[in-house]
């Protein structure tokens, strides 16, 4: 079994306060702030892009949505490349920085692209490339900067800060639109400035873990060899199988809307409900995972999703169940997103950390994409409620099998 | 300490740049507004949205290059028939987007207003002036998380009945009732009788022209690949955009009796719901301008109004 504790974690600093931040390394907090600021920047653009394309440019967005789906697949591959290069060059911070920088420059690209659909497509693809490149090295940095026993808490802190940014982004976009009397270029430029602040924070406050990493052989073969390691293979495999059995966010919201007849005006607010639960729970659940084991918590998170699905298609349509289902969806995120990285981290040698985490993330992402297609299909064939019931059943079975199969030591 | 100073200085510089850019954009947008005039729906006018100001603007139909008169009404989409007009305006700076649907009288005063989620796409008034229809783009509605969907609805001016979406309209395809979870409608157009109407139905990657009966509230798919239909004043032909490639549409006319399609002389891709000026001419938006072309496929397109969209003709 690989033990990756052969490095000195950052000592807790005087700036760390509160139960969540205490004992979390300054590097993790710095990365969290970088993610927060970056999310403000990217959510600003995400929030106004549909408006800009349809009203500002008079484009047909249906065709844009099609392009968008294609990029998701490309991101998965780039994530592996980002992780691999970061490990090979032993420069996690640099590769993550290139990813953050590329996405920042793309905000200016949106200004330069003007009304050319092709150019906007290229810019959005480059933006996704940046996101794909940075995710693996960033999560590797978080895991290498934390005491192995506190990984769950570290990822919890990071994801909390990340989600705060996602909350603030649309508000920032609204502020810019109000101040500029509806100028989209202003939103893009402001988004670029905010993203640049994030790159600056990364450059100044995030420390690379180069010295802490033993020189491992980094090659494609080494990455494949990772999967020979039993516990890591089990984590990667189960993450993918569970991903295949999950139901995508938009399906959950759509089912909730249909069941309880949520007014269309409030529909876009449903994700805020999930985030509102995820946000306060990310750190406590991460700490719980550190105490009782990350893998059980990861599985319990999927069980929470299964319970949410059952509420959505169950016989009782009491309004409180809608709130409960949304809450359980938030619990699912709190118990799976960061916790999976915390679980997988220690199973990968430090020198291959970015690659290993990228492999797990990619497997999960591809599985979730597939599950969306499958769920869409079964919805069309069976109808929404039966499809939900089938999905909840499948998820329950997978969680039970995973729970009773060989324990993953994390 | 040095790092903190650097970070603060850099952040202040960057945020300052963003604020300056934003405030400059504000000043640029508020200059040179034309004076507001009282417009009416008197016959013989071409009304449109001025793309410079966003305001409903009028020129004489006989002299579209003549003096422009600008109303105070800001719309993203605009349409007219008889003594009724409809104005779709996205609420500025509201996220998720909300569109105000305003039903206007002959003096362009608001007589009824609805707010619905989405971004303005198409607007029409039935030839009898009794029904207004719209299409809005809605995000996050479809199960493809990043996809867009459209929602088409209508409003009865006299009875004040609102149909937020015609998604529930029972539709028959090849004699069988069509069921799908991903039904989208766009581009409603009504016949002079105020009952027969057409719209595009999009589902499972295909588009159909649906012919429907409003009173019986039932429709059937009569043809594929006919988007954004627009019925001619005599009710015999449909101008539409025919998809010829990804994101490329050819403006065409379908004869309903013979099912004969005629490609119009506009060879560039048109993404608009065309408007019949009369039984011989259709108007449409291309890039930033309004163009006119013969409905029989002859003659080349001619430019009608620059920096304009949403053409509407009063009669």
Automatic annotation (TrEMBL), chain A:
Offer an example of a GO molecular function term for this protein: transmembrane transporter activity
Q: How does this protein lie in the membrane?
A: Multi-pass membrane protein
The protein's superkingdom reads Bacteria
Where does the Major facilitator superfamily (MFS) profile domain start and stop, copy by copy? Answer: 217-410
Keyword Transmembrane helix among record annotations: yes
Give me the segments passing through the membrane.
62-82, 102-126, 187-206, 235-256, 262-283, 295-312, 388-405
Q: Name one Pfam family in it.
A: MFS_1
| Record has Cytoplasm as a keyword | no
Q: Which UniProt keywords apply?
A: Membrane, Transmembrane, Transmembrane helix
**Coiled coil regions in record:** none
Name this protein carries in UniProt: MFS transporter
Q: Which organism is it from?
A: Solihabitans fulvus
Q: What is its main location?
A: membrane
**Any one cellular component term from GO for this entry?**
plasma membrane
What CDD domains does the record point to?
MFS_MJ1317_like
Q: Where does this one sit in the cell?
A: Cell membrane
Listed InterPro entries: MFS, MFS_dom, MFS_trans_sf
Automatic annotation (TrEMBL), chain B:
Q: Which InterPro entries does the entry mention? A: 6-blade_b-propeller_TolB-like, WD40
Q: Which Gene3D superfamilies match?
A: TolB, C-terminal domain
Q: What is this protein called?
A: WD40-like Beta Propeller Repeat
The protein's organism comes out as Solihabitans fulvus
């Amino acid at each position: 079994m690989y033990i990756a504790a052969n490095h000195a974690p950052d000592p807790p600093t005087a700036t760390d306060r509160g139960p969540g931040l205490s004992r979390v390394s300054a590097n993790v907090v710095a990365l969290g702030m970088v993610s927060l600021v970056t999310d403000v920047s990217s959510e600003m653009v995400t929030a106004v892009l549909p408006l800009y394309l349809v009203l500002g440019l008079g484009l047909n967005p249906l065709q844009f949505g099609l392009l968008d789906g294609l990029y998701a697949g490309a991101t998965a591959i780039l994530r592996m490349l980002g992780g691999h290069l970061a490990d090979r060059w032993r420069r996690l911070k640099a590769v993550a920085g290139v990813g953050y920088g590329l996405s920042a420059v793309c905000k200016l690209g949106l200004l330069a692209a003007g009304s050319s659909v092709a150019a906007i497509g290229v810019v959005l693809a480059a933006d996704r490339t940046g996101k794909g490149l940075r995710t693996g090295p960033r999560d590797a940095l978080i895991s290498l900067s934390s005491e192995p026993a506190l990984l769950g808490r570290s990822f919890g802190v990071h994801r909390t800060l990340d989600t705060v940014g996602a909350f603030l982004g649309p508000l920032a976009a609204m502020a810019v639109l109000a101040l500029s009397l509806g100028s989209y270029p202003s939103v893009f430029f402001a988004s670029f400035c905010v993203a640049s602040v994030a790159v600056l924070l990364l450059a100044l406050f995030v420390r690379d873990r180069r010295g802490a990493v033993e020189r491992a052989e980094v090659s494609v073969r080494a990455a494949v060899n990772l999967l020979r390691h039993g516990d890591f293979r089990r984590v990667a495999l189960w993450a993918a199988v569970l991903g295949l059995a999950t139901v995508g966010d938009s399906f959950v919201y759509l089912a909730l809307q249909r069941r309880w007849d949520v007014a269309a005006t409030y529909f876009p607010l449903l994700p805020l409900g999930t985030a509102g639960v995820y946000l306060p729970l990310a750190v406590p659940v991460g700490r719980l995972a550190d105490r009782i084991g990350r893998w059980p918590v990861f599985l319990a998170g999927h069980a929470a999703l299964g319970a949410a699905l059952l509420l959505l298609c169950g016989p009782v349509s009491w309004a409180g169940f809608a709130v409960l289902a949304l809450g359980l969806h938030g619990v699912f995120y709190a118990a799976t997103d960061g916790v999976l990285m915390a679980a997988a981290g220690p199973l990968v040698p430090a020198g291959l950390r970015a690659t290993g985490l990228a492999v797990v993330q990619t497997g999960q992402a591809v599985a979730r994409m597939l599950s969306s297609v499958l769920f869409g299909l079964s919805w069309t064939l069976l109808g929404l409620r039966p499809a939900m019931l089938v999905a909840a059943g499948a998820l329950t079975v997978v969680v039970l099998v995973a729970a009773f199969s060989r324990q993953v030591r994390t | 300490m040095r790092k903190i100073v650097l970070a603060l200085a850099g952040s202040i510089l960057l945020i300052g740049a963003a604020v300056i850019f934003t405030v400059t954009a504000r000043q640029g947008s508020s200059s040179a507004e034309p004076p507001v005039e009282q417009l009416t729906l008197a016959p013989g006018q071409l009304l449109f949205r001025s793309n410079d100001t966003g305001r409903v603007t009028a020129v004489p139909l006989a002299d579209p290059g003549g003096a422009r008169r600008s109303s105070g009404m800001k719309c993203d989409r605009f349409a007219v028939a008889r003594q009724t007009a409809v104005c779709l305006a996205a609420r500025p700076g509201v996220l998720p987007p909300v569109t105000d649907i305003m039903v206007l009288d002959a003096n362009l005063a608001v007589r009824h207003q609805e707010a619905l989620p989405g971004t303005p796409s198409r607007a029409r008034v039935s030839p009898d002036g009794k029904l207004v229809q719209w299409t809005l783009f809605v995000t996050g509605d479809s199960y493809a998380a990043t996809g867009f969907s459209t929602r088409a609805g209508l409003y009865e001016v006299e009875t004040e009945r609102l149909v937020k979406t015609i998604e529930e309209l029972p539709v028959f395809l090849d004699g069988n009732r069509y069921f799908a979870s991903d039904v989208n409608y766009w581009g409603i157009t009504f016949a002079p009788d105020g009952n027969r109407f057409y719209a595009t139905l999009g589902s499972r990657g295909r588009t159909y022209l649906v012919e429907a009966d409003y009173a019986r509230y039932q429709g059937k798919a009569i043809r594929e690949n006919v988007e954004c239909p627009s019925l001619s004043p005599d009710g015999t032909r449909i101008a539409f955009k025919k998809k010829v490639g990804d994101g490329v549409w050819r403006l065409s006319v379908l004869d309903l009796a013979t099912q004969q399609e005629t490609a119009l002389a506009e060879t560039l891709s048109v993404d608009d719901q065309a408007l019949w000026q009369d039984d011989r001419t259709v108007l449409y938006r291309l890039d930033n301008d309004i163009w006119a072309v013969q409905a029989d496929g002859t003659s080349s397109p001619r430019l009608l109004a620059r920096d304009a969209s949403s053409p509407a003709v009063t009669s």
